[in-house]
Write a structure and sequence with these properties.
Shape: elongated
Strand order of the largest sheet: 6-7-8-9-10-11-12-13
Number of helices: 1
Helix content: under 10%
Structural class: mainly beta
Strand content: over 45%
Distance between the termini: 44 Å
Mean pLDDT: 80
Radius of gyration: 22 Å
Length: 208
């Protein structure tokens, strides 16, 4: 047991020694570094040169690629993608499970469209960073429910803002508020006088 534990520790230590962050600037120069943080304008990192620690940053317009925990020189999958796919609970205004596609038509702007079980939705997005992997602010139009059946029918149509979080790899979640434009017979009576509805979602996304 002790030998197995020591072996596991050794493997983890060797991986941590190899894994590091990388940043590649516009001229192709690569920095083996530690990325401390990033924002909409730049990526901040530190690296060692001749034994001296250097703290610096590069503006996003001058970055070709950057990667966390790199063990090779391969680029981040989908870092420059213009199309993304997401699926999960509450995605695209769906009541239960939904899917949606997003298309980035400008450097930070995207359009999304999708649907699912008892729901559909669309939105215009503004990404906080110029990549489809970044989080974004969205104005969304959602339809909750279909038809006009009293039990399973049309519930409500909403429009409003949402904040969508996207992790570095696959996780996505969102929360927002929608102004109720229209209601159907399946809407609950006890919330009939509330003019807005909470919109939430959680799932996974993949860039193409």
């Amino acid at each position: 047991m002790k030998k197995n534990a020591l072996l596991l520790v050794a493997i983890l230590l060797s991986f941590s020694a190899v894994a590091q962050d990388i940043v590649v600037n516009g001229s192709g120069q690569r920095y083996d570094c530690y990325i401390s943080r990033e924002d909409a304008d730049a990526v901040y990192f530190d690296y060692f040169r001749d034994g001296i620690k250097i703290d610096t940053s590069i503006v996003r317009n001058d970055i070709i690629n950057y990667q966390y925990g790199a063990v090779c020189e391969a680029p981040i999958p989908g870092w420059d993608s213009k199309v993304g796919f997401a699926a999960g609970f509450g995605i695209a205004g769906a009541t239960y499970i939904g899917t949606e596609f997003e298309f980035m038509f400008l450097r930070r702007f995207g359009f999304q469209l999708g649907g699912g079980v008892l729901g559909a939705g669309a939105g215009i997005n503004y990404h906080f960073s110029p990549t489809i992997r970044s989080s974004y602010f969205s104005i969304q139009y959602n339809v909750h429910g279909i038809g006009n059946d009293i039990n399973w029918g049309y519930k409500k149509t909403t429009i409003g803002p949402a904040i969508v979080f996207r992790g570095r790899r696959w996780f996505t979640a969102q929360v927002g508020i929608g102004y109720i434009l229209d209601k159907g017979p399946a809407d609950n009576d006890y919330v009939s006088n509330i003019p807005v509805a909470l919109t939430v979602g959680i799932g996974a996304y993949v860039p193409f």
